Amino acid sequence: MASAGEDADLTARLAREHGDVRAVFQALRRGGGTMAHFSHADFGGTSQWSSGMTMVGDMFNDSLKAKLNAIAGELSRHLRAPPQDRADDRAVSYRSGATRHAGSWWLQELGDPSSDGSQTGLRYAVFP
């Protein structure tokens, strides 16, 4: 995992280039570096990002989508470079791939889900 200093350097550089990026960074951190869902006035309100999908509150503003895509893409690469510590399941809004079962809330007999997460207080897990 990158150090706090590396995180600060990256967010400061991106902030100089694009404006406030902390909301995007925090949302990506919660999303394991692969997706972000947040609300910020600089992006027209509620926004979402994952590789290949960018949605901003001002839905017809292509330059704003490109801005979010550039910011989130670079932050995502930064967050995913080292292995992520996923000990705190409550902070993650979405996760896919190899999910650790230890400490999970679903029945052990179900095995490991292909994805799990939470949104607006509702937890979910998908089992293939």
Features:
128 residues; alpha+beta; three-stranded antiparallel sheet
Blueprint (SSEs and pairs):
Elements: H1 4-18, H2 22-30, E1 35-40, E2 45-50, E3 53-55, H3 62-80, E4 94-96, E5 115-119, E6 122-126
Antiparallel strand pairs: 1-2, 2-3, 4-5, 5-6
Helix pairs in contact: 1-3, 2-3
The N- to C-terminal Cα distance equals: 30 Å
Shape designation? globular
Q: Helix-strand pattern, N to C? A: HHEEEHEEE
Largest sheet: 3 strands, antiparallel
Uncertain runs: 83-90, 95-102
What does this structure look like?
By secondary structure, the protein is of the alpha+beta class. The protein contains three helices and six strands. The chain has helices spanning 4-18, 22-30, 62-80; strands at residues 35-40, 45-50, 53-55, 94-96, 115-119, 122-126. The strands form two sheets. Strands 1-2-3 form a three-stranded antiparallel sheet. The chain is globular. Residues 83-90 and 95-102 have low confidence and may be disordered.
